[in-house]
Amino acid sequence: MNRDMSYQSVMSRRNEIMKKAVGIDYERFESKGIAFDYERMMRETGYTLQEIQKIQSETGVGNTPIYELKNLTALARKLAPEGKGARIFIKDEACNPSGSFKARRAATSIYHAKKKGYKGVIAATSGNYGAAVASQAAMNGLKCIIVQECYDSRGIGQPEIIEKARKCEAYGAEVVQLTVGPELFYTFLKLLEETGYFNASLYTPFGIAGVETLGYELAMQFRELVGKDPDVVVATNAGGGNLTGTARGLKKAGAYNVKIVGASVNLKGLHMASDTQFNKKSFTTGHTGFGIPFATWPDRSDVPRSAARPLRYMDRYVTVNQGEVFYITEALAQLEGLERGPAGNTSLAAAFALAQELDEDKIIVAQETEYTGAGKHIQPQLTFARENGVDIIIGNPDEEVPGENIILPSHPSQIKARDLDLDRIKKSYIKNCIETTKIDYVTREDIDFLVEDTKSNEKFVKQILDELGVKY
Amino acid sequence: MNKAKKGDWVRIYNVVLKPEERAPQVPDDTKKVPLEMWVKGFLLNEEARIGDEVEIETYIGRKIKGKLVEINPYYNHDYGKCIPELLFIGKQLRGILEGGEDNE
């Protein structure tokens, strides 16, 4: 086989490689314009919730406990106006086999890969998902390759990513470590082509359907524990799959009135593909560097149509700062006796602030935690930040400048959930739809799709189309 | 130890893309440097020294060539150094909960 392995040539074979590696013909769900049949894609290529529950239970995934964080709730009430301060709960997803909710996504993907006869799986990820795929592959007897964006050009890597490589290797996976850059995708495609393995993408219907059990469990657990659905569920948002799957699962449980809040760590100003800025951040996921681009253009992922579509489900999108998440991680250990990884506590930092806006009888849930350990812990991450020229300061978190400093709040009352303008993000998404499809006329079907995909209404979509000068 | 023999667990290095081959959309600072890659595996050559071009078999059995950079590679991430700035948090929070601080 003498195929041209140059960058341009491999990239041009992208669709052909992907079709073989995920086994989904996405064209079946496409229209001629913007619209595609999302629900039909989820139905025909995914599994039912009951099937997924069975698949996951066979490898010990899911049914994680929820805890009421009584001391953090008491603290929030001390800081909130009279009568405010919702009960704060957390779903302890760190209890999954690989230490995070990502085991849910991996379980479904790997089950599917095995059923379809693939000998191995490949995933491109520097985060918990790699560990989840490697763990599930080990359980199912499949080979596994994890491709990581790991180092800057000095060969220096974030302790959190190095730890993830260790965990993947502990499960018998091969870990391919790269320096910074979007061309990771090129290496990824070459590996898929060379091995014929399954692309355990985070963004296939299998992956997202895997998270639906999380949302479903939340509704069931709260009904059993307090007799009602939670009022607000906060999901850490990066690529959008966590939020999408959780929201879909809640709906499948009939919990239609739960407000879904996305939370990301604010890394404004840092370019994710920059060699010199790569090690200036202390969060490798759950941040705005993924959250915003994936919300405004979900189909940028490694499959033609992403099943993670956060704007479809999000009621509110907030950011928290790095120092606030580190502070709340320390608070969770000190007040609740739960030592968990920082990135997973992004939603908890937001929930702690949002609880203070809600009445005392309301319930707010941070829907995940992740494991902690060497490298993946506040101390090594702050040590790394300091060694890479980032100042660690105790002060006012509002003054934090990503890449320059990390400000630990001098008082918990300074922890805030800062709203992003969701309408602006929706507008940007619609604009990207127009620019990508290069259409000059939007059909009835497209409008209906855009309304659903942005959780908005016809008036909103038409107003944006008018602003963009697009006919419909 | 800078000499490895067949079957030793080693780490190899490759340049995937030279600076001039990098994707058009990468930022300028990234465009100045190559895309580099590291993989671990069992050495297939009879013996090799650091810096030699070698072939390895990865843990899952894939064969790949590259420059030998490390023999018996190990993880050196840890729990970091003391961050004195974190030490006040637990005491502060307990103080507030015990009512020792006025928070109006």
From TrEMBL, chain A:
<dbReference type="GO" id="GO:0016829">
    <property type="term" value="F:lyase activity"/>
</dbReference>
<dbReference type="InterPro" id="IPR050214">
    <property type="entry name" value="Cys_Synth/Cystath_Beta-Synth"/>
</dbReference>
<dbReference type="Pfam" id="PF00291">
    <property type="entry name" value="PALP"/>
</dbReference>
<dbReference type="InterPro" id="IPR001926">
    <property type="entry name" value="TrpB-like_PALP"/>
</dbReference>
<dbReference type="GO" id="GO:1901605">
    <property type="term" value="P:alpha-amino acid metabolic process"/>
</dbReference>
<keyword id="KW-0456">Lyase</keyword>
<dbReference type="InterPro" id="IPR036052">
    <property type="entry name" value="TrpB-like_PALP_sf"/>
</dbReference>
<keyword id="KW-0663">Pyridoxal phosphate</keyword>
<feature type="domain" description="Tryptophan synthase beta chain-like PALP">
    <location>
        <begin position="59"/>
        <end position="365"/>
    </location>
</feature>
<protein>
    <submittedName>
        <fullName>PLP-dependent lyase/thiolase</fullName>
    </submittedName>
</protein>
<dbReference type="InterPro" id="IPR053471">
    <property type="entry name" value="AKP_thiolase_beta"/>
</dbReference>
UniProtKB/TrEMBL annotation, chain B:
<dbReference type="InterPro" id="IPR047755">
    <property type="entry name" value="OrtA"/>
</dbReference>
<protein>
    <recommendedName>
        <fullName>2-amino-4-ketopentanoate thiolase alpha subunit</fullName>
    </recommendedName>
</protein>
<dbReference type="Pfam" id="PF22010">
    <property type="entry name" value="OrtA"/>
</dbReference>
